[in-house]
Write a structure and sequence with these properties.
By secondary structure, this protein is an alpha+beta fold. It has helices at about 5-25, 30-40, 205-210, 220-230, 265-315, 325-330, 370-380, 410-415, 415-425, 430-450, 505-510, 520-535, 545-550, 550-560, 570-590, 600-605, and strands at about 40-45, 45-50, 80-85, 85-95, 100-105, 125-130, 130-140, 150-155, 165-170, 185-190, 215-220, 235, 245-250, 250-255, 320, 335-340, 345-350, 355-360, 390-395, 400-405, 455, 465, 475, 480-485. It has four domains: about 5-35 and about 220-300, no CATH class; about 40-220, no CATH class; about 320-405, Phosphorylase Kinase, domain 1; about 410-630, Transferase(Phosphotransferase) domain 1 (Transferase(Phosphotransferase), domain 1). A hairpin with a 2-residue loop joins strand 3 (about 80-85) and strand 4. Helices cover about 30% and strands about 20% of the residues.
Length: about 650
């Protein structure tokens, strides 16, 4: 909200009068006590000689530290600090480098925990140091067909499997493909690779690594504090506002203590004489700066909101890059891989030579919702069928995301016959199609059920499915995704989102039902029918309604016993597999969300016998008539009748 000019310009005068007439006099009575108290060090459990910004109830008053640096002292043990509702043991700290070593208290002496959540920090106060790496702990896993040494035993609720595994950033990513059957997983920061290698070690060594904790840098206005100390003051804060205060022998100051001089020229006379001139100059400067910077302040507000969001909900130990580093790793954006509605993708290399895909987002309007969604959603995931986010860049309007590189590109290149002919990409075998379809289903099941926060993708289509060197599918592009609590089955939405041809009916019109994970099921089903049929589900050049309405065409082909888009010469077994995928796809695009299967049920259907699958009824469906910009030549009115 923009304030009227007269209010905007009189605020500095109000704050000036308030500070000098109310705040300063009220602080005179207890100046010397606060100065003496905050100058001394204190001990808390096993940590000795603690000072600003830390404090502890019963040992050191809050005004001697900062609000978010409270320690809970425990006799002959490490003190506990609560960060973002998680308890951390403070193992040591370095006042010289403003770093400290912390460890999750629930993982201090065991890799097993009942608090199955990722580690999060308050990014306003703390940041990871460069030698921190990620440790992923997978719980409730099925036994592996091959011997895997990096395992341990944990009892996890809601599953009968006690086998657990650990993986850290120094391992090969291919090793992760064996652990998709695990019930859940969390990621924990630990010391860098040089601290202790983790591959093929005993559970005892794993415990020692967790006991080492990880280092974070903390920020409590140290530059101001150093100036205060140099002026023979001691650092503290206002307990009510948590703003910095420099406690001095003659009273509190905002920054530094006064310079000693003639005894008659004491600090009270300095305030009385200097206040009018300093206040007048301050008011003039503030008014001039406010007038000049007013427009720029409001222009920056959206970016500030976005920055705050990243600090609060941002990725765990995902590295943040400068845009100059992005330019360097892509060789000034030399090798372009593709382009989407929200940005361009370039091939790049990290410092260790690892290939990456760098998605440079277009200058976002408003609050940059697509960037927020992508970072917030994908940073919560860790699954073989979900693309891995390796880093991001955020500098004003310059935003970029760094992903693992997928050498086989998107599924779109292999889905449609015309693409295969133009790009010389081989048409996928039926068994390959089934593996890819099943992999995508596993990835969606994980997003809907396996994450700590349920993620609705809202843009499942071949273009957003990437294939690695082994044609393992990975879900990507979370720009339109939504986060919701697991207990929420129906979510509220004010806008329709997705790509024409894949959007579920309820997303357009709430008369069909509430928007839930079943919207992703619909998009998945339409994509499966495209993959088997080898054609797009919207044919803008078609002259007959039956050709335009793709599901109607699929039903007719199914009734005639056609193999749809499969090449000639396929075996009877391949025909059965194709028919199974078609039936699953048709069940997924049922009109009512309640008639569609869950992704867990989809996986069971794909892995089960085709004899157990029935042909679903034709949906009776009418989309609302609208012509989106990206499909201006095609109306969305399609009726499927029994």
């Amino acid at each position: 909200m923009i304030m009227p000019n007269h209010i905007f310009l009189t605020l500095p005068i109000f704050f000036f009068i308030f500070n000098f007439l109310i705040v300063v006099p009220s602080a005179i009575g207890d100046d010397n006590f606060q100065y003496s108290e905050c100058r001394s060090y204190y001990n808390c459990g096993l940590l000795k000689n603690i000072s600003y910004p830390f404090w502890a109830t019963g040992s050191r008053s809050q005004h001697c530290g900062r609000k978010d640096y409270e320690l809970t002292c425990r006799e002959d043990q490490y003190p506990v600090m609560k960060i973002k509702d998680q308890d951390f043991l403070v193992l040591n700290f370095s006042g010289q480098f403003y770093t400290m070593t912390i460890a999750r208290s629930d993982l201090w002496d065991t890799p097993c925990t009942t608090d199955i959540v990722n580690t999060t920090l308050d990014y306003d106060r703390f940041s990871y140091v460069q030698d921190v790496r990620n440790l992923s702990l997978f719980y409730g896993c099925l036994p592996q067909s091959e011997s895997v040494l990096n395992n341990f035993t944990c009892k996890v609720e809601r599953t009968d499997h006690n086998i657990s595994y650990y993986v850290d950033d120094s391992f090969s990513r291919i090793r992760l493909k064996n652990w998709t059957s695990c019930y859940t997983n969390i990621r924990v920061p630990i010391m860098g690779v040089d601290a202790m290698p983790l591959e093929n070690v005993t559970t005892g060594v794993l415990k020692e690594v967790l006991k080492q904790g990880f280092q974070v840098a903390y920020d409590a206005e140290w530059e101001i504090c150093k100036r205060c100390l140099m002026s023979h003051g001691t650092c503290g804060s206002n307990s009510s506002s948590d703003s910095f205060v420099c406690y001095c022998g003659d009273g509190p100051y905002d920054r530094i203590c006064s310079i000693p001089g003639d005894d008659a020229w004491n600090w009270k006379r300095k305030v009385i004489i200097a206040a009018p001139s300093a206040g007048t100059g301050l008011i003039i400067c503030v008014i001039v700066c406010c007038i000049k910077a007013r427009k720029q302040i409001f222009k920056r507000s959206n970016n500030q909101d976005l920055e705050a969001f990243i600090r609060t909900n941002g990725p765990l130990s995902v590295k943040r890059y400068k845009f100059s580093e992005i330019r360097k790793m892509t060789k000034s954006f030399k090798d372009k891989l593709g382009q989407g509605g929200y940005g361009e993708v370039y091939k790049g290399n990290l410092l260790d030579g690892s290939p990456v895909a760098v998605k440079v987002l277009k200058a976002s309007k408003g609050s940059g919702e697509n960037f927020i969604n992508e970072v917030a959603s994908i940073s919560r995931t860790s699954h073989v069928n979900v693309v891995t986010l390796l880093g991001y860049c955020f500098e004003g309007q310059k935003k970029a995301l760094i992903y693992e590189f997928m050498p086989n590109g998107s599924l779109e290149k292999y889905t449609y016959k015309e693409n295969a002919l133009q790009t010389s990409n081989p048409q996928l075998e039926v068994e390959q199609l089934l593996d890819i379809v099943t992999g995508i289903a596993r990835g969606l099941e994980y997003l809907h059920l396996g994450c700590n926060t349920r993620i609705l993708h809202f843009d499942i289509k071949p273009h957003n499915i990437l294939l690695d060197e082994n044609f393992c599918p990975k879900i990507s592009d979370f720009g339109l995704s939504k986060l919701c609590l697991k207990k929420e089955s129906i979510m509220s939405m004010l806008d329709a989102r997705g790509t024409i041809g894949y959007i579920a009916p309820e997303v357009f019109c709430r008369n069909f039902g509430g928007v839930s994970v079943k919207a992703d099921v619909y998009s998945y089903g339409m994509m499966v029918l495209e993959m088997v049929g080898g054609r797009k589900n919207i044919n803008a050049r078609a002259s007959h309604t039956s050709d335009v309405c793709f599901p109607d065409w699929v039903y007719k082909q199914l009734e005639m016993g056609s193999s749809l888009g499969l090449p000639n010469g396929v075996t009877e077994e391949e025909n059965k597999l194709a028919r199974k995928m078609i039936l699953v796809g048709l069940w997924c695009i049922q009109t009512k969300p309640s008639d569609r299967p869950s992704m867990s049920r989809v996986i069971e259907m794909l892995q089960g016998s085709i004899e157990a699958l029935q042909i679903p009824p034709k949906p009776v469906l009418t989309f609302p008539v609208r012509t989106p910009p990206e499909s201006s030549m095609l109306s969305l009115t399609c009726s499927f009748l029994d």
